[in-house]
Structure formats: structure tokens, C-alpha cells
Write a structure and sequence with these properties.
By secondary structure, the protein is mainly beta. 5% of the residues lie in helices and 49% in strands. It has one helix and 52 strands. The strands form seven sheets. Strands 25, 26, 31, 32, 35, 38, 41, 44 and 47 form a nine-stranded mixed sheet that branches. The chain has a nine-stranded mixed sheet with strand order 27-28-29-33-36-39-42-45-48, with no helix packed on it. The chain is elongated, with a radius of gyration of 29 Å.
Length: 491
């Protein structure tokens, strides 16, 4: 009996002892450490002082919110506040004021100290948002100290950086990309590693840059922007010119409002938001190889108030942006671009190199251009209740290289016209285009596109006008309601 009881107890103890192994087997560990702790499927939040770090493994995004990181994780002889080895790009959303301070950390002999460390050549890091990061790795460690060390690309997009003195500033095997940052300050005892990278990608013309041969920044002088700042031990950059131009003038730290006729254009850099209020835009900026009424080096949100116009006779585009363009507001906007075909692009709204265009206006938008009325890559999305008329005199009203035209507004009067051009809506030849207006789908072939390409459209409550631009006979205007389909043209 005793033997039997002992056997039962032994069996139960073995089962119990195996439970932690079963639990641990269900936990996924991620190769990302912050403040000395590792993210797992059961630990996606790590406390960092009064702030927090969160990781989303689905989007590969780390969010730092007012985080204070003071405990290092040590691997390969390097102690770091943030350690990355995930094998693909990590997006770091920087919110508020964040600090990586390893100055009080204790290390074994020969250990290197690093604020941010990535030893995987596929783990590019992009820090973006409107927040800031400060890094201090001053310590008594016998090894070398780095502010940042990564074996892939490193991008700062809208994130300010302030690094205290270290043996080496930023050591990167890939490219260092600086975009739209308020402040960037790095100090290094050894000047040849102040900004060590395969390529430093930054438009220094937007910044006031100070350099010094002293690591503490004493006697810093304005850099003449010739040669390389790597020659110095200290670099401090502050943004002075914003990458947005309206009516021939650039917004800067000191200029946030530009006179446009009797109206104004105001720019909020933090929101990437441009407000037009009864603006009359007749002048172009000449930036890079563009000549536009409105030009932005970044995504742009435009708020339309009152009655506004962009009238450019000899220029490239009415509105251009590197990235998404959004138009919102209760006002109206009339864009007229060009009168004759020339070497200019002559488009009404243009971001064909990247991004989409969202039109969510309650006022009227009118676009009339010699070339394309609206040209984009990802798609044109129309919402709101305002009327929209887009006309191309000699080319295409709506040109989308690889995306969709989606109509999701209410009670819009929408008219796309190609007066003497190839076709009203163009899908880039090699891509299918979706022309979506609701739930009921009908199809017809696009003029000039391959047989497999077609427009797909459904209809809600719209007044729809077809203008065939000489490629067939247009049918009468039609008021289309939910669950009703439109009559399609024969050609």
C-alpha cells in the first residue's frame, strides 16, 4: 500500500514539475530587448521609468512613450539600452521625451556600452514621430562607448536626437538618413567616428549646422557645409527651413504664414498641415527640378477655407508632395495649370512617385490642367459631399499607375473629362484599376488598356457624367441610387 501511495505521489510530482515547461513552450520570444528585458508574446509592454515601451510583432513596431531606459541588456560583449536582432526593419514610434541613460550602469571588464545596438545587417531601424531621444552612455566601463551602433540603415524621420559625449558618436554600416528633424546633436571623442556611415543622406540646406573640434562643443562655429562633418568631434543641427513652399515662398521656423493675394497660407509643421484661407496662388517655387504652386518634400494635409485658387500658366504642378496628399475643408479650390503643352509636367495635383490622394472636401474642387488632372501612384480616394470636376485638356483626367479610384462620398456631383486626350481614367497599362463607388460591380474595358484590364465600379447616390473625349458617344447624366447600376457607354 505504501509503495502504491509513493508511486502515485511521485507521478503527481512529475506531472506538476512538467507544467512550467508546457507553459514556456507556448511563449514566443522576440529578438528585441528594452531596458534589460526581452519582449515575448506574453510581455509586449515593458515599464521604463515613468514611461513605457510597447512592441507590436504584427507590424514590427516599437513605441516609446516618455521612456527612461537605464538598465542594459548584454550580448556579444555589448551592453545596450535597446538591442535589436529581429532580421527585418524595426519601426520605432517616438512619443514625448525619451531618455537612454546608461551612465550609472555597472559592467564587466572589457564590455562595450551602447545606447541603441543592432548587430543584424537586415535589422534596419527607423525612428519616426514628433518626439525626442536623448542618449547618455558615459560610464566607467573599460570598453568603448557608442551612442548608436548598427550594421544596417538608420533613419530619423521627425525625431530629434541629443547624444552626450561618447568614444564614438554614431557607427553605422549602412546609411544614415535624417529627415525633418528639429534638432540633431552628437558628440564624440574621436572625430573620425562622429557620424560613421556608408552614406550620410541629409539635405543640409534645411538646417543650421554648428561644428567644433572640441567634444564638449566649445567654440562651435557655423559649418560652411563643404567637405564632411565627420572631420569634427561635435555637430549640432537645428531645423530652420521647412520643406514646404507656397506661392514662391518657403515656410521656415520664422515664417509660418505666407500672403497669397488677399488671403493666406499657414503651415503647422507638427501636423504637416497647410491651411488655405481665401488664398490666390499665382507664383511657383523653383525647388530641385520642380516649379509648383504648392510644393512639399513630405506628406501634406491641406485644409481649405473660403474661396481659393491656384493659377499657374508656366509651371509644373498646382500641388506636389513627396507622399500622401489629403484635401479637406468646407471651402472651395480651383486649380488651373498651363495653357499650352511644353516641357513642364503641367499637372493639377501630382504625387505619382509615392503615396495616394484623398479628397474629403465639403466644398467644390475644380482641376483643369494641360496634362494630367490628378496623377498618383497608389490611388485616388474621394469622400465628403463636395462637387468635383477634373479636366485634362490633352492627356488624362485621373492617372493612377498601380491603384484604384474609390468614390465613397455622399451626394457628390463628379465629372472627369479628357477633352482632347487619350482617355478619362488611366490605369498605367500594366495594372488593373478599380473604380469603386459602392457595392454593385459592373465592368467595361479601358480604352487603350490591355484586354485583361478593366474598370470596376459600383454606384451609390451620385450624379454621374461620362465625357468620352472623342472616344465614343457619351450617354446622358444619370442619378444613381443604392442597389441600382448605371448604364455603361458602348465604347
Amino acid at each position: 500500500m505504501k509503495k502504491r501511495l509513493l508511486s502515485i505521489i511521485l507521478s503527481m510530482s512529475m506531472c506538476i514539475s512538467s507544467l512550467p515547461m508546457l507553459v514556456s513552450a507556448s511563449v514566443t520570444e522576440y529578438n528585441l530587448w528594452v531596458n534589460g528585458e526581452r519582449f515575448t508574446s506574453r510581455k509586449l509592454k515593458i515599464e521604463c521609468g515613468d514611461g513605457i515601451a510597447k512592441f507590436d510583432p504584427n507590424s514590427n513596431e516599437l513605441t516609446l512613450t516618455n521612456a527612461t531606459i537605464s538598465s542594459p541588456y548584454i550580448t556579444r560583449g555589448v551592453a545596450s539600452g535597446i538591442c535589436v536582432d529581429i532580421g527585418e526593419e524595426l519601426i520605432v514610434n517616438v512619443v514625448g521625451t525619451n531618455n537612454i541613460d546608461l551612465s550609472d550602469a555597472v559592467y564587466e571588464s572589457g564590455t562595450y556600452a551602447c545606447g541603441i545596438y543592432s548587430f543584424n545587417s537586415d535589422s534596419a531601424i527607423t525612428l519616426k514621430g514628433g518626439g525626442s531621444v536623448s542618449i547618455d552612455v558615459e560610464s566607467d566601463c573599460s570598453g568603448q562607448t557608442y551612442s548608436i551602433m548598427t550594421y544596417s540603415d538608420l533613419t530619423f524621420d521627425g525625431v530629434s536626437l541629443n547624444c552626450a559625449v561618447a568614444d564614438y558618436g554614431i557607427f553605422i554600416s549602412g546609411d544614415l538618413i535624417l529627415t525633418d528633424i528639429d534638432e540633431f546633436k552628437v558628440a564624440s571623442r574621436k572625430s573620425n567616428y562622429l557620424l560613421k556611415s556608408s552614406k550620410l543622406n541629409c539635405d543640409f540646406s534645411d538646417y543650421r549646422v554648428y561644428v567644433s573640434n572640441s567634444a564638449d562643443g566649445k567654440d562651435a562655429e557655423l559649418w560652411d557645409k563643404e567637405g564632411s562633418p565627420n572631420e569634427y568631434k561635435y555637430i549640432s543641427m537645428e531645423l530652420i527651413n521647412y520643406g514646404v513652399w507656397v506661392n514662391g515662398e518657403q515656410f521656415t521656423r520664422d515664417i509660418t504664414e505666407i500672403k497669397c493675394g488677399d488671403g493666406t497660407a499657414k503651415y503647422n509643421r507638427n501636423k504637416k498641415e497647410l491651411t488655405l484661407n481665401n488664398a490666390v496662388i499665382t507664383e511657383t517655387c523653383d525647388i530641385r527640378y520642380f516649379s509648383d504652386g504648392i510644393h512639399s518634400k513630405y506628406p501634406l494635409n491641406i485644409i481649405v477655407e473660403g474661396t481659393n485658387s491656384i493659377e499657374i500658366d508656366d509651371g509644373d504642378d498646382g500641388i506636389y508632395a513627396d507622399g500622401n496628399i489629403t484635401l479637406r475643408g468646407t471651402g472651395s479650390l480651383d486649380i488651373t495649370i498651363g495653357s499650352i503643352i511644353n516641357e513642364k509636367s503641367n499637372c493639377g495635383i501630382f504625387n505619382v512617385y509615392s503615396g495616394s490622394i484623398l479628397i474629403d472636401m465639403d466644398g467644390k474642387l475644380t482641376v483643369k490642367a494641360v496634362n494630367n488632372g490628378i496623377a498618383t501612384s497608389v490611388g485616388v480616394f474621394i469622400e465628403g459631399s463636395g462637387d468635383i470636376e477634373v479636366e485634362s485638356l490633352y492627356s488624362i483626367a485621373i492617372a493612377v499607375t498601380k491603384g484604384s479610384v474609390v468614390l465613397n462620398g455622399e451626394n457628390n456631383e463628379i465629372k472627369f473629362t479628357s477633352s482632347k486626350g487619350r482617355q478619362t481614367v488611366y490605369n498605367g497599362i500594366t495594372y488593373d484599376i478599380d473604380f469603386v463607388v459602392g457595392d454593385n460591380i459592373d465592368k467595361y474595358d479601358v480604352e487603350g488598356a490591355p484586354e485583361e484590364s478593366s474598370l470596376k465600379y459600383t454606384l451609390k447616390t451620385y450624379n454621374v457624367t461620362f465625357d468620352m473625349g472623342g472616344h465614343g458617344v457619351a450617354i446622358d447624366n444619370q442619378i444613381v441610387k443604392v442597389d441600382k447600376t448605371i448604364d455603361k457607354p458602348d465604347d
